[in-house]
Amino acid sequence: MPSIDDAMKPYAFPRLDDTLYMNFALALAKRAMLDDEVPVGALVVLGGKVLGFGWNQKEAGLDPTAHAEIVALRMACRTKGNWRLSGACVYVTKEPCVMCAGALLEARVARVVYGAKDLKTGALGSLYCLHDQAFLPHRLAVSEGVEKDRAAELLVRFFRCKKNR
Known about the structure:
five-stranded mixed sheet
């Protein structure tokens, strides 16, 4: 029978931790919205510490690769001093695309938690399942739907405003 100490170890309540980190990612998505970018935010967490964070910056940087996940991965790699982010968890408000899923796999991230599904370009369960391909040397654990309503609402609001301009 597990002791009370075992139950209180970090990540004993992963849903609570996931919600906490996703709320930070949602704040980053709102930051993207201020710059008239698609509201997606991401952060990289390792050992309970945020190593990197980002929001979409494609328009501002004139860079098609400046998705929130890529920005966060770049910062995390610089912070860690290594391109390998083994054991890290990435929180992102929208399901990653093929490019971002590939980068997450290349960085050896252990887990991805996302909010809203992306039925048009989602690569971690909606359209493609890159996280669990036998031919790839690395696999990702994926948790979906954390704060999905809030994440989806930001996207809907952003695109509705774009359409009405």
